[in-house]
Prior knowledge:
Blueprint: H1 3-19, E1 27-32, E2 35-41, H2 44-47, H3 54-66, E3 74-80, H4 84-93, E4 97-102, H5 104-109, H6 115-120, H7 137-149
Parallel strand pairs: 3-4
Antiparallel strand pairs: 1-2, 1-3
Helix pairs in contact: 3-4
Amino acid sequence: MNNEHFMQEAVNAAxxxxxxxxxxxxxxxxxxxxxxxxxxxxxxTSTNDPTAxxxxxxxxxACKNLDSFQLTGCTIYTSCEPCPMCLGAIYWARPDKVYxxxxxxxxxxxxxxxxFIYKEIPLPYSERSIPFEQLAPEIAIKAFNEWTEKExxxxx
Length: 156
């Protein structure tokens, strides 16, 4: 199997999800050792879950199938350049490589424009369209302190 084959599988996942009215036109497959071990498509509108993007659903599927929270040794094929949320999820999953089909501009041209998120990130918290404000750090730090002391934790 070559890269184009796996990209076609990602596009097929997008098309199938669209035809089933599950969400937007996005699909993703995750490959390890030449085999698809995870597949996903956008399911935002059908699940009322704004995090159910193709890459996230594919990562969840692959990790479940591998019984692991990391995708070391895997390659992600996604029908469109990942949005900021999916980009973060991909980095947390730690695959070896990502191939994408369409790009941010292609997505923006059909109404899926993530540019506003990229513009929000460098803004001071108080200037974001959704303001962020730190609250009770002395309470929140307790969980971090206990994590530091926890001897049986699973590092990631």
